[in-house]
Amino acid sequence: MKKLSHPPRLAVALFDWYCGTAAADDLRGDLDELYYRDINRMSVMRAKFRYWKHCMELITSYALKKRKQKAAVSTFSSNSFHPAMLKNYFLIATRNLARHKFFTIINVLGLAIGMSICLLFIAMLSFIWQYDTFHSNNDNIYRVISETNSVNDNREFASAPSALADKLSENIEGITEVVRINRSLNSVVKFENTEVSLAGYFTDPSFLNVFTFPLLKGNSHTALSKPNSIIITEKAAKKLFGSEDPFGKMVTLDNLGECVITGVMHELPKNSHLKFEILASYSTILAAEQATPSVKDWHESRTSYVYMLLPDNASTENIERYLQSVSQAYLRDENFHISFSLQAMNDINPGPDLYNQIGPSWDYTSISIFFVLTLLILIPACFNYANISISRALKRMKEIGLRKVMGGQKDQIFLQFILETVIITFLALGLSYYIFVIVRNEFVSMVVAGPETLDLSIDFQTLLYFAVFALLVGLLAGTIPALYFSRLTPVQALKSKPTGSSTRFSFRKVLTVFQFALSLGFIMSVVIVYNQYRQTLNYDFGFQQANILDVDLQGTDPEIFRNEFSKLSSVQTLSMSSHVMGTGSVDATWIVDRVKSDSVEVFQMFVDQHYLSNLGLHLLAGENFTDNAAANANRVVVNEEFLHQFKIKNPHEAIGQTFSLADNHDVIVTGVVRNFHYLHLREPIKSFFFRYDKTQFHVANIKVVSTDIFTTISEMESVWKIFGGEKKFEAKFFDDEIGEAYAFYFSMIKICAFLGMLAISISCLGLLGMVVFTVENRVKEIGIRKVMGASTQTVTILLSRDFAKLMVIAAMIATPLTYLFFDKLYLQAQRYKLPIGVSEIAISLFIMLALGLATILSQTMKAAKANPVDTLRSE
């Protein structure tokens, strides 16, 4: 038997050094077993050689294995988006959120409230960007816009003189089509016993070649080629004809006579800036004698628009140069200059804010203001999350420190907190979408005239925008706390002391002040605008409104209406008018000033001889209209501002003076009334006169004397059926119509109230989270103070005073800024504004402080009343 020989010591040492003690213990046993087996079969030298060989093979194999493991670990740690690691992050995040339910709920609610208004903005912007995209040639359609420069004003208009269309067609080559649009078509359309008020445009036959508005019936090339040819929309056809086929039918339009329906159009898409119910051939307005001067005048372009269709990839430089020179050739006026330029259809909505828009306008300024408002609500909500997350740093310090000690990388910890925030934002997205669904219809009614111009229905693309938005909010809200925690060193984290500024004005305090200042600003806005609205409704317009019922005549004979309704005992007096005064719905005409060789704009309204007395208008000089309709044809009753316009010293001097209107019709001043507000209160009182024309009477003004309005209205409906046929009796009280005319105030109140509710909710939620966390961290201190004899009131004041100070600072900042905004900016647009008083400021401060203090005291009083035995029994 051979003498026992041990393995080579150098090989054993090399193996132990390279592979480590743990690996040597596991693997060297196998090596030794092979060695002792070989030494019994072969020489010691050969056995030791084989031992070296096996040892080097194991070392090489172990080195390759370690290299692969190291590469895998390196890849896993450097790629934080590894599925397994993301799954681990998700589990940790959900468990942490479930463990701290209270703070999770606060964060979800705060972000959901802030995100809800952003969903409205995203859905609205998604729809606006689709405006006019349904036209097959939308990339090649342009509109001519005007810029005027006069002594008094400089403005940009969406309109342009119709005469410009002829010049473009004659002098510029390469234009496929030029189309004129005149928006003055607003008429009562009559068919047999049915009358419907329809609004639309006079336009060229090329209208249907330029724009993609398909016809249900009719030839798009010839439908508007002849005078008195009209096209109506499908909706208008149903109102006028019901289920009957309208094509080829003859209808009657006010001031235009009989017209034939040559086309029926599909209902217009909501995302069209051209809104109409009826189209009439442009040759119709040219044939109308009273319309001829206005459509040919280069100075008159308020109702005229010029569009053109260019070939694909056509250059507009030649057209732009011609437009710059054309005004110099045809408009020679030292005091007035006008220039023209092209605007692409894709730049109309959204686009610049132009005067005289033909349809709904979504200008960049309004969109930017709405965007800023959404940020003012969203950013505080995101900062709330960051604020609460960082404030809870003491609760997460040991977790972060332990992960750092165990080798956790900075990007891994950063991603962990970002993922946690993204989960919260997607939970908030679900709640904010629910809020969005609840408020979107009300939002549409507040922002625009009606649902015909805006659609907030949700499609897949909008949902995708919502998801991307939630992801971006998660990144925005989570970045600050993620950076805060990822930058902690293990020593800082395990000390359980938060880093950062501990100064008197920390980030969290600044955020709290900003939130409550914003909330107070919105609350003050609601109170101030509400007072302005109430002041407007109670303002003395210069005429009587009480107990006057305005009835829409709907084309019925005014004399028949007067005869039948005068028989009712509840009717005290009855007058006729063309418009409802005080709502801004009056017409304008032009008086030729022979001295200045210019035309002066004057507002006008057609009334009968009973109107002035019925509305209590005070006659300063002259006389009212008479019962002789023929004698009243050339008479006018002017206001005091008319005298100032034409340098007439006193009312008596104006009586008998003759003025020439733009349509070559002369009128004689027979009376002067005291100034009154016939337009919105936003506008100053301007030159105005009353005229008499039975054909212009559309409204009956009934002064009602009754103790039972319901019975009175029922009696009127019964009388109406005698001569009104199947037409619905439409009547509104005068003061209600005035209120509707100023509904924009009420919309402003609702918008400010909604934003204020969101802002104050976010502020109170953030404050609640801060107070709860502060109380949790000071629970031992509170217990010790209670044991040492501190009263509940003392502890409550101690816990509340720092937060109350922040609210006082917010009030000191927000109050003067809000006051200056309304006094110097917003209310400047109101000609007759109500000064902001102490009551508005006091009410706003009371609401804000009451809500804030209620939030604070709800937690501090609870903590102050706690039994110190419960808080000090364990450490």
Descriptive labels:
single chain; 875 residues; alpha+beta; 4 domains; seven-stranded mixed β-sheet; six-stranded mixed beta barrel; 22 strands; 52% helix; 16% strand; elongated
List the helices and strands and how they pair.
Layout: H1 9-39, H2 44-78, H3 83-99, H4 101-128, E1 141-150, E2 154-157, H5 163-171, E3 177-191, E4 194-203, H6 207-210, E5 215-217, E6 229-233, H7 234-241, E7 250-253, E8 257-265, E9 278-281, H8 282-287, H9 292-296, E10 304-309, H10 317-330, E11 336-344, H11 364-391, H12 393-405, H13 410-447, H14 460-486, H15 490-494, H16 507-537, E12 548-552, H17 558-565, E13 571-577, E14 587-593, E15 598-606, H18 611-614, E16 619-622, E17 635-639, H19 640-645, H20 651-654, E18 658-660, E19 666-673, E20 688-691, E21 699-704, H21 709-724, E22 731-733, H22 734-741, H23 743-777, H24 779-787, H25 792-824, H26 838-864, H27 868-872
Parallel strand pairs: 4-9, 6-8, 15-20, 17-19
Antiparallel strand pairs: 1-2, 1-10, 1-11, 3-4, 3-7, 3-10, 5-8, 6-9, 7-8, 12-21, 12-22, 13-21, 14-15, 16-19, 17-20, 18-19
How would you describe what is shown here?
- The structure is a single chain.
- With 875 residues, the chain is α+β, with helices and mostly antiparallel strands.
- It has four domains: 9-78; 138-360, no CATH class; 365-533 and 744-872, no CATH class; 548-739, no CATH class.
- Helix content is 52%, strand content 16%.
- The chain has 27 helices and 22 strands.
- The strands form three sheets. Strands 14, 15, 16, 17, 18, 19 and 20 form a seven-stranded mixed β-sheet that branches. A six-stranded mixed barrel has the order 3-4-9-6-8-7.
- A hairpin with a 3-residue loop joins β7 and β8 (257-265).
- α11 (364-391) runs antiparallel to α16 (507-537), α16 (507-537) packs antiparallel against α23 (743-777) and α16 packs across α25 (792-824).
- It is elongated and about 145 Å long.
- The model is unreliable at 74-80, 289-294 and 499-505 (pLDDT under 50).
